[in-house]
Amino acid sequence: MGNKHVTQEVLLEEIERIREFMIYTALKEGLVSDNMVKVSQVLDSKLNELEEIY
Predict the structure, then answer these.
(1) Count of alpha carbons within 13 angstroms of residue 35, beta-carbon side
(2) What is the pLDDT of residues 12-45, one digit of tens each?
(3) Angle CA(1)–CA(9)–CA(40) in degrees, nearest 5?
(4) Which one of 7, 15, 19, 48 has the fewest beta carbons within 10 angstroms of its own beta carbon?
């Protein structure tokens, strides 16, 4: 059970970093840039990982 909490905490930190980077990318390149799409896909993947823990 302890490992689950650590994993969840790490995932939440990663999600927050990716979210902040996604905002930066959107402001810099626009919402439909290739990089924005890639960052969005990475964020979706991390959110799916988090959902699997619950």
Answers:
(1) 11
(2) 999 999 999 999 999 999 999 999 999 999 999 9
(3) 130
(4) 48
